[in-house]
Specification:
heterodimer, A: mainly alpha, 2 domains, two-stranded antiparallel sheet, elongated, disordered N terminus, B: de novo design (two linked rop proteins)
Amino acid sequence: MAERNGAACPKCGGVNPPGADFCYLCREPFGTQPGAGALVGPSPPPSEALPRLRPVPMLLFTEAARHNVRMSFLLFALLFVVFFLLGTAIGGAYGDVGAGLGLSFVLYAILGATAYFSGSSIVLSIHGAQEAGEEAHRQLRNVVEEMAIAAGVPPPKVYVIPTEGLNAFAAGRRPEEASVAVTAGLLDRLSREELQGVIAHELAHIKSRDTLYNVCAAVLVGAVALLSDLFLRGTIWGRRGRSPGGRGGRGGNAALFVLALLLAVLAPLAARILQMSISRQREYHADAAAAGFTRNPLGLASALEKIAAGGPHVPGENRGTQHLFIVNPLRAFGPDASSLMSTHPPTEARIQRLRAMGGFAAGA
Amino acid sequence: MAYIPLILAAVIVAWFVAAYNKLVRFRNQIKNAWHQIDVQLKRRYDLIPNLVEVVKDYMSYEQETLTRVIEARGAALTAKGPAAQAKAESVLTETLKSLFAVVENYPELKANRNVASLQEELTGTENKISFARQFYNDSVMTYNNAIQSIPTNFIASFFNFGQEAYFETEPESRAVPKADLR
């Protein structure tokens, strides 16, 4: 079948993709003329005029998306193990392994299901995000649609956080049901080009399914923190109520109690380090992808500068959700932000990388 | 041991199916991207009469600018051939720009919500057109890369997956800046 080479328009000779109903260039409908949809021989050589900034290869996104799905599974598995250990240890410390295990599994199931099925709506409502109106936020909606076209994903739902703070985040398990939220302050202060950069960055997170992983990470950290919190408080309050009076001590094993204490203190820390280290890589990737979508890395660079220069805090920004934002809302933006516990690379470094890309584009 | 060839065959078949499906997915994406360009172009043609309708009462002294926009739209709609089409599209973009420049001189027009939102709509549509073209070309590149590289090229040639053409604009329209209608 030679049709793969695309149909030449019988009228103007323009080459159309196979399956076109009419000529894109002269709007001549195919099928009305003899010889319509006639086929040209070899396709023209690939364009020399491709944008100078390299597009982000789509396969990279597929890879990244698969990686994120795998990692999310892994996180849930890890979470299961952590709950198993904590449940056993805490149960053992109180002398009832079964109850400890049961309680931790119920918690695990509830948290996991909540995170998976309503993670993004929870995150949106924590930050007070409201759906962007058709009229009131026409520009924002247009920019989101533009960037969705550039990224080749369905346009996500658009939310505005009514605050003067400067930030943005994306949420959603899959690109088909994703959402993007930006603060009202961001809309006020950023130019259209800068806004494009920010939205492109968020769409890159959605396309590579970082958002799925991010929600899972938020749950892991939150759940481990919750469980160990429960235990630590329990050790303080529980002594009076739980000590069986007759035996003069806890019913449980002292060694297990120490182990549980250790786990309860260390597990949240370990979970947090995991959350941080993985999400920094993603920021660089999303920045690069955003530059590929907009072909304009300088837009995002100057947006990052404005965001880093600061503004009041976004309500609801907290340790659990800090890694979701385009720029970490809780940190000072100095070189010290590059520590082990940071969710984002230092904004300075990100801006520098983007400017370097812009230099290439301008110089070529 | 007798199962080893069977397992090997199964793996090869599975890879084959996956690679074939990938090529089909890429090809459909190209078609979809092409369609997207067209949707946005139509949208722009549809928006222009609305804009002209809204501003014409205010701009009695600027009939010429309005006429030029309407003519440019007509020319873009009826342009014959790729070169003429590209040229007509860029003329249309230029006339729209000059119309918006004129709007700047009319405070009551600038304050008009309808004008502001139509202006934003046109800017957005203009951008969507160029991003849709960009995505089309990106998709073509991904697809062409796939059908030319080992090992998918074997499947591509076996099932007649051919190269797709890039969308190219004429040199003069390349110089047109991305809608600067703010």
